[in-house]
Each structure stands twice: as C-alpha cells, then as structure tokens.
Amino acid sequence: MSSIPSPEATLSSRAMLCSLSISQWSASKHDREASEEIAIHHGAQPDVGRYNKLLIPKETLAEVRRIAGEARREHYFMTLPWDDNGYRVLAAVYMEHTEKLREYSRQFMAAVEVFAAQFDQLVLESRSRLGGLFRAEDYPRPRQIRDKFGFETKVMPLPDANDFRVTLGDEEKDRLKRQIAASVEASLTVASRELWRRMYEAVSHLAERLTAYKVTDQGVEHPFRDSIVTGLIKLVDVMPRLNVTADPELERLTAEVRASLLVDPAELHKSESVPTDTAMRAARIARQMSAYMAGYQLAVAGI
Hints:
By secondary structure, the protein is α+β, with helices and mostly antiparallel strands. It has helices at 11-14, 32-41, 62-77, 94-117, 119-130, 170-212, 227-242, 248-261, 265-270, 273-301, and strands at 16-23, 28-30, 52-54, 80-81, 87-90, 150-157, 214-216, 219-221. α7 packs antiparallel against α8.
C-alpha cells in the first residue's frame, strides 16, 4: 500500500477554487393568518405549523429548476470539496467546466425569460386559484421578477503559503505559512477522500447490480440500467484530471477500473457470462478500495 501523497508545492499553479451561485424565486409564501386560522380551527397552539402558499403552479418553474439542478450536479461532479463557503477545487477540467457552466447559464436565463414573459398572466390566474389566500404583495413587481434569478460562477486562486506581499516579522511569516500549509493539506485530504468515495460507490454499485441481475425462464430478475456503466465511464474519464494530489494508488485503481469494468452495456444485456465476470471483478476492486480507504482513514487520524 502506498503512502498518502502530500500536496505539491506547485499545486496552486495546477488548481484553483471555484464557486457556483444560482438564485431562484421560491414562488412560495408563508401565510401567517392562514396558519393561525388552521391552528384555531383544530384547537392547537399557533406555532405548531406553517401554511405555505404555492403562489403559482410549480410546473411553470419546472424547466428553470431542472436546469439549475443539472448545473449544480455537473459543477459538483467536476470539482472537489474545499470549505464551507461554497468554493470547491477546480483543476485540469477548467476549460470543460467553464464551457459547460456557460451553456447552463445560457439555458437558465433563457428559461427565466420564458417564465418572465408569462408572469403577469400567472399572477392574474392566481387570483382565482388562491381565492381568499391571494395577496398582491406576495408577488414581485413584473419589472423585478428577473432580478429574482441569477447564475454566477466565481474563480479565485488556491491559498499559497509562499505568497506573501505584506511586511511581517520572520517569525510571524513562518507561523502564517505553517498555518496556511496545514489548512491546504487538510482541505486536500478531504478532496482526496471524496474521489475515493466516488469511485468506491460507483464500483460497488456496479458489483451489486450485476450480482443481482439474473435471466430466468420467467424473464429478467433485478434488471439494471445502462447508467451503472455509463456513469462509471464518465467518472473514470474525469478522474485523472481531478486527482490534484497525484495519488498513485488512485491512479492505479482508476486504470484497473478502465481496463476491467468498462464493458459495453449491450454485452451485459445479451451475454450470460459477461455480467457475472464483470460483477466479480468489480467486487474484487471494491474490496481493494475498501482496504485502502480504511488504512487512509487511520493514517489521517494519526493512528
């Protein structure tokens, strides 16, 4: 088992931090009066529940929310965790990430325009739909509705312990450098664990689904979706560019997954032996990963 890799001094030149911020109008409103009326009607305390009004039919914002959800999933897939402030590590997939998020932004704002164009009519229809619960003040003004939506990415450099441009005493500089280096290493440890988790879950899921899959005289038992393979292919393709710590053990296992498990889904469906053989190989690799991850956790904990 290889030792846990430490961050390279040039890491800040190979990776950066990126955040994605998507804002949307909730299209719902807490109605205090209705909540109190319901509580009184049932003889309950006023604070036992909340009545939230759906100001417009939820399907009118379905496309906006779908695009936002896909953009967030793609952003999380192509980046690694860093801190609790919304920033994540973005490495060699910068151009691909930028192009994809730019396209999602375009789609998102186009869907917002479609929604904004029918907003007046939706508010008008809500008068009859909500009846006595309708309140005009619950809705943004038509000219303000677009301001309730936003799609923004921000990029900033990784902290670099050697990048000091302030006048400090040598002792204080050394202390701050050690503090920054320790913080970066701790964050990269979390990022590395995330990569192992992603690969382990994908390989384990493949093993479980293919082990359960059986073709009998009565038909197929426990069928699987092609996404168990296509999702793994996508992960294996991006893994080398996400491996910012250049973890050699992760590189080796990624290569083994690529060589052993990336089977054409059509072969899995039409062959009796391919699913069984692939499941056995996936289970073996998952066991290897599980053992390494256990050792990794102990090393991180200093045990």
